[in-house]
Amino acid sequence: MNVLIKSARIVDANSKHHGKTIDVLIEKGIIREIGKGLKAPKNCREISIKGLHLSTGWFDLRANFCDPGHEYKEDLNSGLEAAARGGFTGVLIMPDTEPAIDSKAGVEYIINKTKGNLVDAHPAGCLSHHTEGKEIAEMYDMHLAGAKAFTDNKKSIDSASLLNRALLYSQSFGGLIMNFPNNHELSKGGQINEGIVSTKLGLKGIPALAEELMVSRDIYLAEYCNARIHLTNISTKQSVKLIKEAKKKGLKITADVNAYNLKLDETHNERFDSNFKVLPPLRTQEDIKALIAGLKDGTIDAICSDHTPEDIENKQCEFDHAAFGIINLQTAFAAAHTALKGKLDLDEFIEKITTAPRNILGLKQPQVKEGEAANLTLFHPDQTWTFSRESISSKSKNSPFIGMELSGTVLGVLNNNQIKLF
Question: Residues 375-393: pLDDT tens digits?
Answer without folding.
Answer: 999 999 999 999 999 999 9
